[in-house]
């Protein structure tokens, strides 16, 4: 029988309890326990689905930005801004993001993924500034 780990714990404890109370003999308990197979979580499938969902989110976000007139005008203004203004703005923004990321890393070191995501956002803004 292939079941999840949490369900296997319940079954093992039930089999042990039935064995202790005499409802099952030792041989039957061992046979039943040997028949239980714990399924591992499929991380590859989760990664694949997460990738597809992120692509869909990117398409929806780009569609939302391009369908709003104010956001289109804002994007045109940003892309037509002088290079020095873009550099100073993005460099300042990346400095703030790095500061927040490193400060948060010191305060909450157990939050590995969110701290990494904040620092990666800093890397992206640094790349955009260059």
Search tags:
single chain; 130 residues; mainly alpha; 3 domains; two-stranded parallel ribbon; 6 helices
Report on the structure:
The chain crosses the membrane at residues 49-66, 78-100, 112-129. This is DUF2157 domain-containing protein. Keywords: Membrane, Transmembrane, Transmembrane helix. It comes from Rickettsia felis str. Pedreira. The protein has 130 residues and is mostly helical. The protein has three domains: 2-38; 42-80; 82-130. It is built from six helices and two strands. Helix 1 runs antiparallel to helix 2 (26-35) and helix 5 (83-107) packs antiparallel against helix 6. The N and C termini lie far apart (57 Å). The model has no long low-confidence stretch (mean pLDDT 90).
Shape field: elongated
Oligomeric state of the chains?
single chain
**How many beta-strand segments?**
2
The helix content is over 70%
Rg, rounded, reads 27 Å
Main pleated sheet: 2 strands, parallel
In which order are the strands of the major sheet placed? 1-2
Indicate how many domains the architecture comprises. Answer: 3
Number of helices, where a helix is a run of at least 4 consecutive DSSP H or I residues: 6
Taking the alpha carbons of the first and last residues, their distance comes to 57 Å
Low-confidence stretches: none
Order of helices and strands: EHHEHHHH
Average predicted confidence as pLDDT? 90
SS strand fraction: under 5%
- Class from secondary-structure proportions: mainly alpha
């Amino acid at each position: 029988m292939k079941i999840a780990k949490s369900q296997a714990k319940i079954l093992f404890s039930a089999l042990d309890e039935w064995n202790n109370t005499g409802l099952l003999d030792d041989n039957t308990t061992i046979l039943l326990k040997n028949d239980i197979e714990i399924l591992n979580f499929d991380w590859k499938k989760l990664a694949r689905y997460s990738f597809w969902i992120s692509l869909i989110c990117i398409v929806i976000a780009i569609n939302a930005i391009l369908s709003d007139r104010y956001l289109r005008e804002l994007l045109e203004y940003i892309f037509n801004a002088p290079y020095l203004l873009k550099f100073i703005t993005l460099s300042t923004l990346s400095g703030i993001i790095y500061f927040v990321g490193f400060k948060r890393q010191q305060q909450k070191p157990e939050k590995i993924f969110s701290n990494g995501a904040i620092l990666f956002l800093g890397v992206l803004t640094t790349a955009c500034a260059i």
